[in-house]
Specification:
Blueprint lengths: L13 H7 L9 H8 L9 H5 L6 H9 L3 H11 L3 H7 L6 H4 L1 H6 L5 H14 L14 E5 L3 H12 L3 E6 L7 H4 L10 H10 L4 E5 L9 H7 L2 E4 L5 E2 L12 E3 H10 L11 E5 L3 H12 L4 E5 L11 H9 L3 E3 L2 E9 L2 E12 L5 E11 L2 E4 L3 E2 L6 E2 L2 E2 L3 E2 L2 E2 L12 E3 L11 H20 L2
Parallel strand pairs: 1-2, 1-4, 2-3, 4-19, 6-13, 7-8, 7-13, 8-9
Antiparallel strand pairs: 5-14, 10-11, 11-12, 15-16, 17-18
Bound molecules: flavin-adenine dinucleotide (FAD) and iron/sulfur cluster (SF4).
Flavin-adenine dinucleotide (FAD) binds next to α10, β2, α14, α15 and α17.
Length: 450
């Protein structure tokens, strides 16, 4: 993207770019890990375990760290969550395991479960150990579509159980949003690819990058050529603001920009506005706002149509944005994009409120937020075209996402799905991993009893 007006690259020194996109939470060393592990009560019926979507034996892995059995600890984590390394970095632990930790009630500070999980899994990666071996071959082949957390977790578990898997992904690299979406400072140093390499090193997973469902292969073909199919294609579409001026230079889709940022070897070459407005209230809004600030934008404001409590970004993420200098303007919705000489110059917002029935309505006051760059972060959508045949839906959808049963089976008897693309999901990395794992067991059960 060329520099346009106040949208410019190279705003900071090389040292600043390096610091801004390095590890946001540096890892624990052995001494600190032992001290932190010693805070755990190793609770019976541990509430933290109940709160982990993948059911990791948290007291079990912490106890192994406390006795210096770090390899055993990593295996305990990865047995339940093969992306335990990524989840240690990206999980909103403050609303999951750490929120449930009894130490929170006792001392107002939970055991730092995420950091301990990272300590153990990093150790295993650093020692280049593959702790798992595959079961005897079943001779069955499963097609997996999407090499994100859901698809990779499904492929890994199926490979472990002795099946052969072929993983198709539209993009050149595997990892899904771990590689292309999550904030750069959460997964620096090419961590996402190291984790993919670790998963593939098990064997039995044939990765086919650059192969898109609906373009290079069809669901009809996959069902014919494989014993079962798993779909984990995530959310590839984005919502529009539906305002005039959405195509003005300077108006960007947040997820597409983050993808460019994540793939940029040199962050100083990314043009960013001086005054940036972000529309949205979720983690994507927080991530683009913080990264815009860290790229050197002077003024970054998130405009969100409801109050802080209604934001899907966690309070921890909201606070993180504010400590990074991002302003959050609640109860404000965009009504018009402003331009000057064919370029974005700002956004006119209307203040909002709730009426007597709790419905969001305009409160009448209008104000302008000056901006040379605006990011849309108002949600993503499932792209259904690849699961259509001649315009007909092959799978049942609900509210635009794939319907699955408790075992992650779709309306087709030999097709399973999981991760962000299914209806009713949580849109978190850890939930996608759990979906993939559960679907793999259901597929295994189906194939062994067919
Ligand atoms: C900006 C952003 C930041 C986020 N940050 C966090 C975070 O900090 N913590 C957290 O827990 N969650 C976070 N999430 C959510 C999390 O990344 C997702 O819930 C998770 O990645 C979902 O995994 P998935 O496998 O379902 O989909 P994805 O990760 O989206 O992977 C889907 C894969 O399918 C491929 N694909 C798509 N269409 C096709 C096709 N037609 N044919 C073949 N392949 C296809 C894609 O290329 C991709 O590799 C974030 C999301 C976004 C957008
Ligand atoms: S709830 Fe907290 S103290 Fe209890 S086992 Fe889990 S991490 Fe340890």
């Amino acid at each position: 993207m060329p520099d346009i007006g106040d949208i410019a690259a190279n705003r900071l020194s090389a040292e600043q770019y390096q610091r801004h996109f390095d590890d946001v939470e540096p890892p624990l060393d052995r001494k600190r890990a032992l001290v932190e592990a010693s805070r755990c009560h190793f609770c019976y019926d541990a509430p933290c375990l109940e709160a982990c979507p993948t059911g990791i034996d948290i007291p079990g892995f912490i106890r192994k760290i406390a006795t210096d059995n770090v390899k055993g600890s990593a295996v305990t984590i990865l047995e339940e969550n093969i992306m335990g390394g990524a989840c240690a970095r990206v999980c909103p632990t403050e609303i999951l395991c750490e929120q449930a930790c009894v130490r929170t009630a006792q001392e107002g500070k939970p055991v730092d479960i995420g950091a301990l999980q990272r300590y153990a899994t990093d150790w295993l990666f650093e020692h280049d150990i593959q702790p798992f071996t595959r079961a005897a071959s079943t001779g069955k082949r499963i097609a997996i579509v999407g090499a994100g957390p859901a698809g990779l977790a499904c492929a890994h578990r199926l490979a472990l159980l002795g099946h052969d898997t072929v993983v198709f992904d539209a993009r050149p690299k595997a990892g899904g949003l771990n590689e292309y979406g999550v904030a750069a400072y959460k997964v620096p140093h090419d961590f996402a690819q190291r984790e993919v390499d670790f998963i593939l090193s098990l064997g039995g997973i044939d990765l086919r990058p650059g192969q898109a469902l609906g373009r290079d292969v069809s669901l009809v073909q996959l069902r014919r050529d494989y014993d079962a199919v798993f779909i984990g294609t995530g959310l590839g579409g984005v919502n529009a603001l539906a305002l005039d001026g959405e195509t003005l230079p300077g108006v960007e889709d947040a997820v597409a920009y983050i993808e460019r940022l994540r793939q940029a070897a040199d962050k100083s070459r990314l043009p960013i506005g001086r005054r940036v407005v972000v529309i949205g209230g979720g983690n994507t809004a927080i991530d683009i706002a913080v990264q815009a600030k860290r790229l050197g934008a002077e003024d970054v404001t998130i405009a969100y149509r409801r109050g802080a409590d209604a934001m899907s970004a966690t309070p921890h993420e909201q606070e993180f944005a504010q400590t990074n200098g991002v302003k959050i303007k609640h109860w404000a919705r965009p009504v018009r994009l402003l331009s000057d000489g064919g370029r974005l110059s700002g956004v006119e917002c209307e203040s909002t409120t709730l009426d007597a029935d709790g419905k969001l309505v305009g409160a009448g006051t209008r104000f302008a937020l000056p901006a040379d760059m605006l990011f849309k972060a108002i949600g993503q959508t499932f792209v259904a075209a690849p699961v259509r045949d001649g315009g007909r839906e092959l799978l049942d959808l609900r509210q635009g996402r794939i319907v699955v049963d408790d075992a992650h089976r779709t309306s087709l008897p030999d097709v399973w799905a999981g991760g962000d693309c299914i209806s009713g999901g949580q849109d978190l990395t850890v939930s996608a991993v759990q979906d993939g794992k559960r679907a793999a067991h259901a597929i295994d059960h189906f194939l062994r009893n067919a």
